[in-house]
């Protein structure tokens, strides 16, 4: 998936036009997830590479700044462990780390390196050198919601930086729906990539029946104003002021 997405991005006409232009930048900020060939933009424009780890600290991004991840107490984010692992969990964590390293180094990264070389043939540094010399890695993670682990100085947790610090008033009907709930409110959203209105009918009915049995009221980000079988404790809208609701 990541290989196809990377290639599709670099084949985009607007991206090709940008690469052919004389436009300059101060830095390149690139998400660190299955798109390593895009680091070539940093070398192409001769600017620092800033990585954004939306899934927190992981081998995909700790490598970029040399941040250590001791398997004895730093659990892989893909495993259901915490920092207090048993002996066998530590063995499993170590073994999974070896498997992940082999997958990265022997299979996946070489494929990304081939795309890098194809689309950035004039870059002086190869993808591996650019990748391990990132200027900064920002992590969508916060110390209050994660476990203790070591970081180097240029790998920084910035989880929550997108949250508005000042709450704006909610629409009157939404405010009333929330305030009149005696048992609290559940906010249910599948994000912007999955649209609830396209769920199969049987799954939609199952969700509604689950909500119907709750004593709490539910806010559901649903993109169609007509939802058959909607119980009274469910409020639907194609968009919610999420920060203001959660604040």
UniProtKB/TrEMBL annotation:
Pfam families to which the protein is assigned, alphabetical: UDPGT
Listed name of the protein: Ecdysteroid UDP-glucosyltransferase
Statement: the UniProt record of this protein carries the keyword Methyltransferase: no
Family the UniProt entry places it in: Belongs to the UDP-glycosyltransferase family.
Keyword Glycosyltransferase among record annotations: yes
Designated gene of the protein: EGT_1
Any one GO molecular-function label of the UniProt entry: UDP-glycosyltransferase activity
Keywords per UniProt: Glycosyltransferase, Transferase
Superkingdom classification of source: Eukaryota
Organism per entry: Bactrocera latifrons
């Amino acid at each position: 998936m990541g290989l196809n997405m990377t290639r599709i991005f670099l084949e985009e006409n607007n991206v090709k036009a940008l690469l052919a232009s004389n436009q300059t930048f101060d830095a390149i900020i690139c998400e660190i997830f299955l798109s390593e060939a895009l680091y070539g933009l940093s070398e192409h424009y001769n600017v620092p590479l800033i990585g954004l780890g939306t899934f927190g600290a992981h081998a995909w991004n700790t490598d970029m700044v040399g941040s250590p991840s001791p398997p004895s107490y730093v659990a892989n984010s893909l495993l259901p462990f915490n920092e207090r692992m048993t002996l066998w969990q530590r063995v499993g964590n170590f073994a999974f780390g070896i498997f992940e390293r082999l997958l990265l180094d022997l299979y996946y990264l070489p494929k990304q390196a081939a795309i890098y070389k194809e689309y950035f043939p004039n870059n002086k540094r190869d993808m591996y050198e650019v990748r391990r010399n990132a200027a900064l890695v920002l992590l969508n993670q916060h110390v209050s919601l994660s476990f203790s682990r070591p970081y180097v100085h240029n790998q920084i947790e910035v989880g929550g930086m997108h949250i508005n610090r000042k709450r704006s008033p909610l629409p009157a009907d939404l405010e009333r729906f929330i305030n009149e709930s005696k048992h609290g409110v559940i906010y249910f959203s599948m994000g912007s990539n999955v649209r609830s209105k396209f769920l199969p009918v049987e799954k939609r009915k199952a969700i509604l029946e689950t909500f119907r049995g709750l004593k709490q009221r539910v806010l559901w980000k649903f993109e169609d104003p007509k939802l058959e079988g909607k119980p009274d404790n469910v409020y639907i809208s194609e968009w919610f002021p999420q920060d203001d609701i959660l604040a």
